[in-house]
Amino acid sequence: MNRxxxxxxxxxxxxxxxxxxxxxxxxxxxxxxxxxxxALTLASALVAGVGRQATTTGAWLRGPLPIRRHxxxxxxxxxxxxxxxxxxxxxxxxxxxxxxxxxHDLPTLSSIFGHLTSSRGGRAAVVALWLTLGAALAVGWxxxx
Length: 145
Prior knowledge:
Layout: H1 3-21, H2 28-49, H3 57-62, H4 67-73, H5 75-101, H6 109-116, H7 120-138
Helix pairs in contact: 1-7, 2-7
């Protein structure tokens, strides 16, 4: 990717995050902006992924997951996936524990995000992090090595 294009995309994402952060959480404009960001991310993933996959989509869907080969060739990636699974399960467990006990000193993930997004800067930061994660998942790992 061209460096100027990368800088322009980062600047556009920062401007979008700040704009989205200034909107009311339940407004039509906020929802439309997020839907547009999701659509753009999916379209970018499709365009960036054409011809860059190791196998065709049909072969990937038909064949079993090559776990043994993956474990041998990419042990670091396997550890990373396991860490993310453990973190996700820990967050789910924490939220379930908080909901079951209904105690205010055990905050849920939604209450933490509610406090974080109560200001424009917090909402803008959450949107920026969300866009960064979406971009990394959509096109970041598809770059040629």
